[in-house]
Design goal:
This protein has 114 residues and is mainly alpha-helical. The chain contains four helices and no strands. The protein has one domain. It is 71% helix and 0% strand.
């Protein structure tokens, strides 16, 4: 079972299902987009950790991450005070790229402690 990917995915879904009225104001200085970048960079790292994929599969992880990003944006339509935002999806895509780019050295470091 791939627990890290499931845990990170559930945390992201939980975060995006918080009603807009209960969210702290993070739009100052585009922190909202930074949060998206970080969430999806961590998601990409989790997938790489659980599935230990070869570089040729990075594209598959990226596409799966974009589909997950799309799902999160669609789910937000159902939540009070939240909207579908293509800029959030773009930030998610940047996060996926960042996560994939740093995954090799980060996973090498993490495996030292296994």
């Amino acid at each position: 079972m791939k627990y890290v990917t499931i845990l990170v995915s559930l945390l992201i879904i939980t975060a995006i299902l918080i009603p807009g009225s209960n969210l702290p104001d993070v739009n100052i200085g585009s922190y909202d987009k930074l949060i998206h970048v970080v969430m999806f960079a961590v998601w990409a790292l989790a997938v790489r950790y659980d599935f230990d994929t070869r570089p040729v599969r990075y594209l598959m992880i990226f596409v799966a991450g974009l589909l997950f990003s799309l799902l999160t944006e669609v789910l937000q339509i159902l939540v009070e005070g939240r909207t579908f935002d293509t800029y959030d999806m773009a930030a998610d895509g940047v996060g996926l790229i960042v996560g994939l780019l740093i995954s090799a050295p980060v996973l090498k470091w993490v495996k030292r402690f296994k």
